[in-house]
Specification:
There is one protein chain. This protein is α+β, with helices and mostly antiparallel strands and about 325 residues long. It is built from eight helices and twelve strands. It folds into two domains: about 160 residues, Immunoglobulin-like; about 90 residues, Sandwich (Immunoglobulin-like). Strands 3-2-1-5-8 form a five-stranded mixed beta sheet. A five-stranded mixed beta sheet has the order 4-10-9-6-7. The model has no long low-confidence stretch (mean pLDDT about 90). Bound molecules: dinuclear copper ion. Dinuclear copper ion (CUA) binds next to loops. Its cofactor is Cu cation.
Length: about 325
């Protein structure tokens, strides 16, 4: 009895936790707000299994409560063992056939969607082919058919199938865009495939969903869905030669001296760090910081303070504030 009293005391705590933890899902990082066909079909499967389970629970509890009340020991009733029944063909057939039917209702769409969602669209002429490489703790996106490489912001045309091919450059990560569907692991040395599609022009949150190190929780990215025309314009701009304005040439020289060994600034350049072509247009800085010049300065000065365990060295001791400022001005000219 004492033990039960202690458990009852936990109920307010559980209630508060429920409120707090459900608050975590209020943002767009939710599988319950699908914005593309893959996510919608996956949500349908979740709802289907939930409804079947709720149905089973309701039926079983209804029978249980009925039996409990109907056959309870009444006043004056003698405490005797009731008549023993062994085997009942009708009942046995009913409780075997109903679960089989329920499992079939669950299995047919689950299996068919599972096969559908693992379709490899990489050879499809209408699909956009994107090669994703996960790094500790950032994302590299290559468009082999377009000759473009970028990072952190995955730009896609709306309404088109995006055929992903995913690997990791170091440890295991997982690529996840909850509102579009997924997720899938990225492993070193193994190529996985996935396709997604965005129905709307919007920006969707993406996350790494596999514990991969100190900054796993900060390994975010964005999916920027544009109209086909805007996507084409973006691709053209990414491929155009980078024009350096006269007032940022000092910054460019410093960038070449200090940053170029890891960061490419070209249409399809790859390196140890993210390609920074078109950096001024990105939605976030390092995936998690607001895209402001102040944050860029903080990042260059001491990146470990913002994202522990990442591979970028700190330039705080190496460059003075003016030089870091020049580099930031140069980065903000990369449109
Ligand atoms: Cu990458 Cu977690």
């Amino acid at each position: 009895m004492i033990r039960w009293k202690k458990l009852w005391r936990l109920i307010p705590l559980l209630a508060v936790m429920t409120f707090l933890l459900t608050g975590c899902g209020s943002d767009t990082l939710s599988t319950l707000q699908p914005r593309g066909p893959v996510a919608s079909e996956q949500l349908f499967l979740m709802k289907l299994s939930l409804f079947i389970m709720v149905f089973v629970v309701i039926v079983v509890f209804a029978i249980y409560l009925y039996v409990l009340v109907r056959y309870r020991q009444r006043k004056g009733q003698e405490n005797t063992i009731p008549k023993q029944v062994e085997g009942n063909h009708v009942l046995e057939i009913i409780w075997t056939v109903i679960p089989i039917l329920l499992l079939l209702v669950l299995a047919v769409p689950t299996v068919s969607y599972t096969f559908k969602h693992s379709t490899d669209y990489r050879k499809d002429k209408d699909a956009v082919h994107v090669k994703v490489t996960a790094h500790q703790f950032w994302w590299q996106f290559e468009y082999p058919d377009l000759g473009i490489a970028t990072a952190q912001d995955l730009v896609i045309p709306q309404g088109k199938i995006i055929a992903f091919e995913l690997i990791s450059a170091d440890v295991n990560h997982a690529f996840w865009v909850p509102s579009l569907g997924g997720k899938i692991d990225t492993n070193p040395g193994i190529t996985n495939t996935l396709y997604l599609q965005a129905d709307e022009i919007d920006t969707f949150k993406g996350k790494c969903a596999e514990l991969c190190g100190a900054s796993h929780a900060l390994m975010d990215f964005k999916v920027v869905a544009k109209s086909q025309a805007d996507f084409d314009a973006w691709a053209q701009k990414m491929k155009a030669p980078v024009a350096v304005a006269a007032d940022v040439q000092k910054g460019e020289a410093l960038f070449k001296e200090n940053c170029m060994s890891c960061h490419a600034v070209s249409a399809d350049g790859l390196g140890m760090g993210p390609n920074l072509n078109g950096f001024a247009e990105r939605s976030m800085l390092a995936g998690v910081l607001e895209h402001t010049q102040d944050n860029a300065k903080k990042w260059i000065t001491n990146p470990q303070a913002e994202k522990p365990g990442n591979k970028m060295p700190a330039f705080g001791g190496k460059l003075d504030d003016g030089q870091i400022n020049d580099i930031v001005n140069y980065l903000w000219s990369l449109k």
